[in-house]
Amino acid sequence: MTDAVRGSADPPTVDGDGVRHHDRALVLHPAFKSGPRAQYGGGRSPETRLDEAIGLARAIDLNVAAAEVVRIAEPRPSTLIGSGAVERLGALIAEREIAVVVMDAAISPVQQRNLERTWKAKVIDRTGLILEIFGERARTREGQLQVELAALSYQRSRLVRSWTHLERQRGGFGFLGGPGESQLEIDRRLIDERIARNKRELEAVKRTRGLHRKARRRVPYPVVALVGYTNAGKSTLFNRLSGSGVLAADLLFATLDPTMRRVTLPDGREIILSDTVGFISDLPTELVAAFRATLEEVLEADLLLHVRDISHPETEGQKQDVEAVLHSLGLGDRLEERVIEVLNKIDRIDDPEARTALAEQEKRPHPALAVSALTGEGCDRLIAAIETRIGAALLTQSYKLAHDQGGAVAWLYEHGEVIAREDRPQDIVLTVRLAPDTAERFERRYGAVVVIPPEEEATRRQG
C-alpha cells in the first residue's frame, strides 16, 4: 500500500461530477490473471501500472491515502472484483474515510453503481480520471471544447445519470422535457444537443487553426514538434530549447494545449518549436477522437523529437505506446526519416555502464541522443542534429536574376538561406537553400526567373 498525506489548508473544490479535489482517495489497479484483459497495459508489471495510476490521481490533487494491486482470477459482471475483495476494501474505505476510489481499468456503469452503493464512496475508472485531468489542464478554447466533447461522449455511452450541473455551468439549456419524458431521455437529449453544438464550435476553431497553419507556411519556418509519453520531460526540454516559460511540472499531463515558439538555431535558421500533449497507454477512445485536431500539429511537423524518460523502468513500453499512436496517425512508414529519438533525464542515471550504453546509441545509423533537459547536458548535440536533419530536407537551387529584380533577390534572402552570390555584368546568380514548397512558391511568384539546371551549374562552377 501507498500512503500519502497532504496539507488541508486549502479548501476543497468540487467539480461537476462530484469529485472533490484534496479528497482522500484509494487507487486500485486490477491485475487480471487470464482472459482478454490479462495483457492490459501492454504487458507491464501491475506495480508499475499502479504507480502510474497514483500519479494520475495526484495530478488532480487527490490525496492518495491508500493504493494496491487487486488480483482478479475471473472478472465479476456486477463489481469486476470478487466479493471478498469488495468487503475487505469496503472496511478500508470506511476506516480511512476515503471519499473517492480510482479503479485503474474500464468499468461498466453497472459495476460503478454497485461499487458506489456498497462502498458509500465515489468510484471513477481510468477514462473518467483522465477526463478529469484533461478538464483541469485545458486552457485554450479548442482544448476545452475537445475535453467537453470527450466527456459528453463518455457519459452518453454510459446512459448518464444527471447532467443538471452543466446547466449551472453554462446558464441552462432554455427548455424542459415534455410530459411523459423520462429523466434518462432528457439527459440523453441534453447531451446530444450539447455534442452537436460542441462539434459545430470545434469545426470553427479547427478552421481558424487551419488558417494559422497556412499563415505559418507562408513564412516557411520548419516545424519541430516534441512528442512522447506523458511526464517524459517534453515541456522542460521545450523551455530549454526555446527559453520559454511553459509549465514544466513533475505531473502527468502537465501540458495539454499545444504551445508554439519561434526559435533561432545557431546557424541562423529559424524553426517553430511545438510542445504537445503527452501520450499514455490505454488512452480512452473518446479522447483519441476528440484530440485529433490537436494531434494534427504532429502530422504537419517537419521533424518530430520523440522525448523519452530513459530513467523510467518501463521506458521501452512507453516508447512502444508512443509509436503506436504515431502509427495510428499514419506516420508509421516515415518514422525514421521524421523522428529524432531523445533519451531524456540522463541526470538521473549514475551507473557508468548505463551511461556508456547510452553513448553507444548515438553511433547508430539513426542515433538516439542522450540529454538532460534539466541540466542542459547533451542539448548542444541535439540542436546540431536538428540543424542537420532540417538542412537535409532543403533544396539547393541556383537562380539567374536580372539586375532590376531586386524584389526577387530580397525575397530569397528573407525566405531562404543564400549560400553563394555572383554579381555578373548581365545578371545575378544566387545559390539558395529552400524548402521544396518555398522554392515552388518563389518560382510561381517571380515567373521570369531562370532556374539553372544542375549540369549547367556544375559546368559554371568548374569554369
Write a short abstract of this structure.
The protein has helices spanning about 45-60, 85-95, 110-120, 125-135, 140-155, 165-170, 185-220, 235-240, 285-290, 290-300, 315-330, 335-340, 350-360, 380-390, 405-415, 435-445, 455-460, and strands at about 25-30, 65-70, 100-105, 120-125, 225-230, 260-265, 270-275, 305-310, 340-345, 370, 395-400, 415-425, 430-435, 450. The protein is α/β, with parallel strands linked by helices and about 475 residues long. The termini are far apart.
* CATH overall fold name of the largest domain: Rossmann fold
- Poorly predicted spans: 1-17, 160-181
Could you name the CATH homologous superfamily of the largest domain? Answer: P-loop containing nucleotide triphosphate hydrolases
How far apart the termini lie comes to 79 Å
CATH domain class of the largest domain: Alpha Beta
On the 0 to 100 scale, the average pLDDT is 78
The SS-based structural class is alpha/beta
Given the structure, what is the number of helices? 17
Largest sheet: 6 strands, mixed
What would CATH call the architecture of the largest domain? 3-Layer(aba) Sandwich
β-sheet strand percentage = 15-25%
What's the number of structural domains?
4
Q: What is Rg?
A: 27 Å
Can you tell me the overall shape?
A: elongated
Number of strands: 14
